[in-house]
Write a structure and sequence with these properties.
heterodimer, A: alpha/beta, Beta Polymerase, domain 2, 4-stranded mixed sheet, 8 strands, 21% helix, B: mainly alpha, Cytochrome-c3 Hydrogenase, chain B, 3-stranded antiparallel sheet, disordered N terminus
Chain lengths: 177, 431
C-alpha cells in the first residue's frame, strides 16, 4: 500500500489531531504522528490486516539545532528533536516512515528531557534502540522497562549526539582534549 | 521442548552429577518454580564474561547468573568500543566517512562501504553505471563469503574444531588477494566512492576471481565433511539458542539469524539493489532456529554467493565504472587529475573543505543485505556538504540485544556457541 492510502486510513481512524498532513514529495515520504499517540498508531499498524507492519527496521532521534547564531538564518529548521521510526511489513512488503516531533527540552527548560512514549511493548527490538536514543540524543521514553545509558558509561554527563553538546574536558582523570 | 533436549543431552554426557540432580528435581518441580526457587538459593552466582575473553573475539561483556552450569540470566553490557562513529559522520564528507564505515564490521569492510554509498546515492539521486553495479555486487558477495568464512571458522574453533578454521582462513586469504588487486588494500579498502569506485578492475582480476570460484568448492566440501555431520559439533549446536519465528520478528532479527528461524527475508530479493535483479540465486532458509540451523544457513549461503559471483563475473558489462565525469559530485579519475587542469580543478572542487556540493534537505533510509543482516544507513541532509545526521542501523546491535533470550536455561559452555552463531562484531555494535 502506498503512503497516501496509509495516510488516509490513519486520518480516518485517528483524526487530524494525531496524524499530520504531508506533501509526500520527499524521497522517503513520512507521516507525522503526535507523540502521545505513537504507541496506539504503531499497534494499529502492526495488527491491522491491511498493513501488518510487524518489523521495526530502525528507530533514531535527530536533533535540529544550529548553535551558531550567524548560520541560523540559512539553517531552515526551527529547533526541535525528531524521533524517526522505520516500519516494514515482512508479509506485505511495504515500508513506512513515521515521525514524532518534540521540543528540544520539555517545557523549554534546558536539562529536562523531552518525553516520547516507549514502543518497547509493541516491538521488542525498540528496547535497545530507545536506550541508545536516550543515551546519545537525550529523549526520555516513557514506559521503557530499563531506560539506562547503553553506549556511554552510566555516569556520563550530557547527550553526545545533541548539536549543542560540549565535549567534556576530563573524565575520571583522562583528558578529553 | 528443544531446550530440555539440550539440557538432557549435555547433562548426560558431560555432567553426571548435575544430571542426577536434574533427575531428582525435574519430576517434582515444574521449570518455572525451579527457576524462582533457584534464584533464591545461596549458590546462585554471578560470572563476569568479558569484556576481554578469547571467545568474545572483541570487547563484549556479559554478566551471567549461574545455577551450577546453567545460565539463569544474562545481561549484556555494551559500549566498550564506542568511538562516536555517528558523530564523526556529521563532520566528514561522504567520501571521507567511508574510511570510518570500513571499521564497523571489520569482517566485511567492503559491504559496509557499499551500504553507506548506497544510502548516499539514494540521497543524491545518483544512478550507477551498469559496470559499477556488477562490480559492487561481486565485491559485496565476496565480502559475504569473507564474513561467513570467518564466522563459521571461529564458531568451529570456539567449539573445539581447529582444522575448519584454518581451512576457511586460507580461503579468506584468497579473498584478501582479490580485494587487494582491485583496491590496493587487503583489509580496510575504502574502495567505493560517491557514484562509483576508486579504480576499475582489469582482466587479471577477473581471472583471479575465476580461479577462486573454481577452487573454493573443494575446500567447502572438506569443511562440510568436517563439521556438518560431526557428532561433537552437532551435539554442541543443535537445539541450542532456539529463536522462534515470532520472536525473530518481534526482536527484529535479520539476515542469516532470521532466515535460520524460517523468516523469508532477504533484501537482495525483497528490495533489489545493485545488480541482484538480473542474477539468479536462492534465499537460504531453515526452520530449526537453533545454532545448528544458523550454521547451515551460513554454509549454504557461501555456495549461493559463489553462484552470484560466477554469474556476475561472466556477465560484467563494459563501460565506465564511475558516473559521468562532468557531474560535480564525482571524483575524477587519477590520470586526469595528474595530467589535465580540468581534472585537477574538479578534484579540488570535490575535496576542499569549503567547496563541494550541497545535498538536498531530505531524510533517506537505505539498507542493504550485509553478511550479518540488514545494514541500514539513515542520512539526514540539510543543504550542507556533509551529512547532518548519519545514523547506522547495525545488525550486531539488534542481535546482541536478543542474546539473553537465546541463552536462557542453557549451559555455560553454550554461551560461546550462541555468541558465535549470531556473529557479534563489537566495533559495529558500539560504533
Amino acid at each position: 500500500m502506498d503512503i497516501q492510502g496509509i495516510h488516509s486510513i490513519l486520518l480516518e481512524r485517528f483524526g487530524e489531531s494525531v496524524v499530520g498532513s504531508q506533501t509526500f514529495k520527499a524521497i522517503d515520504p513520512w507521516i507525522q504522528v503526535s507523540a502521545a499517540s505513537i504507541v496506539e498508531v504503531c499497534t494499529f499498524l502492526r495488527d491491522d490486516s491491511r498493513f501488518l507492519f510487524n518489523h521495526l527496521n530502525d528507530l533514531c532521534g535527530v536533533d535540529y539545532l544550529e548553535p551558531d547564531a550567524k548560520k541560523a538564518a540559512k539553517f531552515g529548521h526551527e529547533p526541535h528533536v525528531e524521533v524517526v521510526y522505520h516500519l516494514s511489513s515482512l508479509k506485505q512488503r511495504h515500508q513506512l516512515k513515521l515521525k514524532v516531533v518534540v521540543p528540544r527540552w520539555k517545557h523549554n527548560v534546558e536539562g529536562q528531557l523531552p518525553v516520547v512514549p516507549s514502543l518497547s511493548a509493541v516491538f521488542g527490538i525498540a528496547n535497545w534502540h530507545e536506550r541508545e536514543a536516550y543515551d546519545l540524543m537525550g529523549i526520555h521514553f516513557e514506559g521503557h522497562p530499563n531506560l539506562r545509558r547503553i553506549l556511554c558509561p552510566e555516569d556520563w554527563i550530557g547527550h553526545p549526539m545533541r548539536k549543542d553538546y560540549a565535549f567534556p574536558l576530563e573524565y575520571h582523570g583522562v583528558r578529553g582534549r | 521442548m528443544i531446550e530440555t533436549e539440550g539440557w538432557h543431552r549435555t547433562a548426560q554426557v558431560e555432567f553426571p552429577i548435575v544430571f542426577v540432580a536434574w533427575l531428582l528435581l525435574m519430576p517434582l518441580t515444574p521449570v518455572d518454580n525451579l527457576e524462582a526457587e533457584s534464584a533464591e538459593r545461596e549458590y546462585v552466582w554471578t560470572l563476569n564474561f568479558g569484556p576481554q575473553h578469547p571467545a568474545t573475539h572483541t570487547t563484549l561483556r556479559l554478566v551471567l547468573t549461574l545455577d551450577g552450569e546453567r545460565v539463569l540470566n544474562a545481561v549484556p553490557y555494551v559500549g566498550y568500543l564506542h568511538s562516536g562513529f555517528e558523530k564523526l559522520g556529521e563532520h566528514l564528507d561522504f567520501n571521507q566517512y567511508v574510511t570510518i564505515v570500513d571499521r564497523m564490521n571489520y569482517l566485511s569492510p567492503l559491504a559496509n562501504e557499499i551500504a553507506w554509498h548506497h544510502a548516499v546515492e539514494k540521497l543524491l539521486n545518483i544512478e550507477l553505471t551498469p559496470r559499477c553495479k556488477y562490480l559492487r555486487t561481486i565485491l559485496a558477495e565476496l565480502m559475504r563469503m569473507h564474513d561467513h568464512l570467518l564466522n563459521l571458522g571461529t564458531t568451529a574453533l570456539d567449539l573445539g574444531g581447529f582444522t575448519a578454521f584454518l581451512y576457511f582462513f586460507q580461503q579468506r586469504e584468497h579473498i584478501y588477494d582479490i580485494v587487494e588487486m582491485a583496491s590496493g588494500q587487503r583489509f580496510h579498502t575504502s574502495y567505493t566512492r560517491v557514484g562509483g569506485v576508486l579504480f576499475d578492475v582489469n582482466t587479471d582480476w577477473v581471472n583471479r576471481v575465476r580461479k577462486f570460484i573454481k577452487e573454493f568448492p573443494k575446500v567447502y566440501d572438506d569443511v562440510d565433511r568436517l563439521l556438518t555431520k560431526n557428532r561433537i559439533f552437532v551435539d554442541r549446536t543443535k537445539g541450542i539458542g532456539y529463536l522462534s519465528p515470532e520472536d525473530a520478528i518481534n526482536l527484529g532479527a535479520c539476515g542469516p539469524v532470521a532466515r535460520a528461524s524460517g523468516i523469508q527475508r532477504d533484501l537482495r530479493r525483497d528490495e533489489p539493489y545493485l545488480a541482484y535483479e538480473d542474477l539468479d540465486f536462492d534465499v537460504v532458509c531453515s526452520r530449526g532456529g537453533d545454532c545448528y540451523s544458523r550454521y547451515l544457513v551460513r554454509m549454504r549461503e557461501l555456495l549461493e554467493s559463489l553462484k552470484i559471483i560466477e554469474q556476475a563475473i561472466e556477465n560484467i558489462p563494459s563501460g565506465p565504472v564511475n558516473i559521468a565525469v562532468d557531474s560535480d559530485m564525482v571524483l575524477p579519475a587519477k590520470p586526469s587529475v595528474y595530467r589535465s587542469i580540468e581534472g585537477l580543478i574538479q578534484h579540488f572542487e570535490v575535496i576542499m573543505p569549503n567547496k563541494g556540493y550541497e545535498v538536498p534537505r531530505e531524510q533517506v533510509y537505505a539498507a542493504t543485505e550485509s553478511p550479518n543482516g540488514e545494514l541500514g544507513f539513515f542520512i539526514v541532509g540539510n543543504a550542507e556538504t556533509r551529512a547532518y545526521r548519519a545514523r547506522t542501523r547495525p545488525p550486531s546491535f539488534i542481535h546482541f540485544s536478543m542474546f539473553p533470550h537465546l541463552i536462557k536455561n542453557h549451559q555455560l559452555s553454550d554461551v560461546v556457541a550462541v555468541l558465535g552463531s549470531i556473529n557479534i562484531i563489537a566495533a559495529e555494535l558500539d560504533r
